[in-house]
Amino acid sequence: MLIRTDWKKEPVLQFGFMTMQAMISEIDKETGGKMEPTYSESVFFDYDADPQLYWPYALKWYKRAALQKEPLAVEILRQIECFKSTEQKATEGDAEAQYLLSVYYHDSYGTYQDFEKCTEWLKKAAINGNEDAVRSIAEWNRLTGCKQKLSDPDFSAEPDFYPDEDNIFLGGRHGWVDEENRELAHVDIIWEKFYNLDFDDTLRAAEAGDAEKQYQLAWLYDWGKGTEQDTKKAIEWFVRSAYNGYAPAQTEVGILYHAGIMVTKSKLEVFSGKG
């Protein structure tokens, strides 16, 4: 079997990591439960760059996966078409579409995340009388203690009311996703299918070039199942599988470019006294 090496040039492999938040959960005094230190780390993008910078890479991988009728890629491409249709209506002055466009930019629904455009379209929707936009701004002002006006040059707010179809949390698919959020992140079936796989057997098959096993191995590294949790290795195996033509991996690489990655990890050494 030919094992490709050109995957090493994929830009996502060069993304850095940073700790976004850290915490120690409290010990349950009644049960004497063990304290579980956790933290999150995220693939971070160059936020000084154009927010559209990596969007073409996401589209490329989604389209490749969709050609094989991979369900999640097909759904994301549908969302992209929905975004385009909404954008057209918004530019024509439709206040409801303007509000939806604000939501879509906020949640990366069918597009890249862009908070500036989110605020811009929220403001336009409110000016044009959209009730959800007006209520969102009022709620934002209440929560932040601001008394800003739409005419303020530094006006900033986020949408607070979301349509039913905005229901895929692409950025929350990785690491220790709790049971409640697995369905929202569309990893519930993946978890059920792969969680009990043998790590060593999967590793051997992946190293031999089996694209499906490479994808499975990526998730085992992602979860730390049978091995040390290693997000960088997880991304590497997603990329290798994608280059070998496995559609679910191609979708996952698209998601990395589209939504980044927020990973909940356990046993933070600095908190356990070992680091």
From TrEMBL:
Pfam families: Sel1 (PF08238). InterPro entries: Sel1-like (IPR006597), Sel1_AlgK (IPR050767), TPR-like_helical_dom_sf (IPR011990). It comes from the Bacteria. Gene3D superfamilies: Tetratricopeptide repeat domain (1.25.40.10). This is Sel1 repeat-containing protein.
